[in-house]
From TrEMBL:
InterPro entries listed in its UniProt record: Fe-S_metab-assoc_dom
Organism: Candidatus Thiodiazotropha taylori
Family of the protein in this entry: Belongs to the SufE family.
Highest classification ranks of the organism: Bacteria, Pseudomonadati, Pseudomonadota, Gammaproteobacteria, Chromatiales
Protein name per UniProt: SufE family protein
Pfam family, one: SufE
Amino acid sequence: MSEIEEIVENFEFFDDWDGRYQYLIELGEALPAMPDVLKVEENWVKPCMSTVHVSAHRDEDNPALIYFIGDCDTAIIKGVLALLIDLLSHRTLSEIHELDVDALFTRLKLQEHLSPSRHVGIYAIVEKMIERAEALSKVETSKLEPTILS
């Protein structure tokens, strides 16, 4: 599980934004494929200019923990999505709510290097992740079926 400090340290390893952009692209390329069956309306991040889907799932070993799966059709945003998935996954809903994603974006200086429309999209991704985690948390653990990824 990556913490904000670890993510910031990884970003600071690169001296310039060309290196940081390349790092984001590589994070996106390493993101596991999202099954097409999960690319449905409820998982679609509509306000994002890119086509982004994100879904929330319970950890089989510890159902209190939530993890995310996602996909995007643009390289940079897919990298940001991978970073968010890494940061928010394997946490409880309350831990997800407590994370200060704004602080992370400020420390990474993303707002200085991404267009305003991309900012809107990134925050929409965070909102969708929280929305999907909240929806999942409303399902009683005893009523859960095995995930399609099992």
